[in-house]
Amino acid sequence: MRDQLKALFLHLMKYAGIFWLSRRLTRRELRILCYHNFSLRDEHRFRSRLYMRPETFKQRLDFLLRRQIPVLSLGDALAQVEAGTLPDNAVVITIDDGWYGTFANGIPALHERKMPATLYVTTWYQHKQVPVFDVALGYLFWASHANSVNLEAIDPSLTGVYDLIDPAEEEVALEQLREFAAKLEAPAQLDLLYRIGQVIDVDFEPLHQQRLFSLMTDDELREVAESGVELQLHTHRHRVYANDASAMQTEIEDNRAVLSPLASGELVHFCYPSGVYDTAMWPALRDSGVVSATTTEVGFCTSETPMLAIPRIVDGEEISMIEFEAELSGFLELVRRARGRSNPPVSVAQSKA
Ligand SMILES: [Zn+2]
User: Fold this and answer.
1) Model's pTM, two decimal places?
2) Which end of the chain is more exposed for a tag (fewer CB within 10 A), N or C?
3) What's the distance, CA 343 to chain centroid?
4) Which domain holds residue 193?
């Protein structure tokens, strides 16, 4: 009901010309869209922020085409923001992580429409070529109909029987499994996923074969880079450090070492993993040669935006087409500013302090 009312309100605003007005008012500001992964089967029902149906993504891209909205590469757009030459209402498409679903269902949709994009690639799981444990684990539990789980049946060093009907208890079980897996090497993590599947009655084999939780191989990344999608930095282990500059730099160096032989351009653009960021990370990022860093804070980018804290618009399957349109028009951004919910712009000079 709330969603229906919201949609009705947005339609009214659109037909009253408010979207048009919002586009005029915010036309000099850059919209950076953020995507993660594209479903191979029903993953969008599992996490609608992480996965999008390929059909929904194509709808978004066709909307951009129909409206003749300029879609620029990240580097080009940021340079034009700085130079004050950005075309009106320009958009950049960014995709995080480098999932196989993006290779299979996201990149082809972009190519069909000749649209540029930036792919921020995290490389530990990519290099190991095993499923991303935490996401695969979450999916297994989501897909399971089991009422409880005995962790000891998964591994003798684990204990406790947890009621899976109770979300809080389920979370305790998941946390134990995540902590346990974090200490394992990649092949052991894969074995563990198979064992968890057996215990909670979900066959992991077809999910693994279909590469639902896998990142792209080197060959796939190379193909993507050669086709014009730029590869950029997202840390090696999908982890950042606010109070350890050397660990932060190691993350970038390890990430860059894997990506350098695959990428076509310079690796100088960065995306904070899981949107976690802190200004304390900025010196380490600068020392690592990072010139821009995007977050998952919502907002538009202007010449006032600190280049190491660039907000984006996180799109997902649960976002309706009218909401997407409201967001791109700038209407929702103007509402946030009016409510004081938008991050006040920090000047570049201040941010460099
Ligand atoms: Zn990520």
Assistant:
1) 0.93
2) N
3) 20
4) 133-209
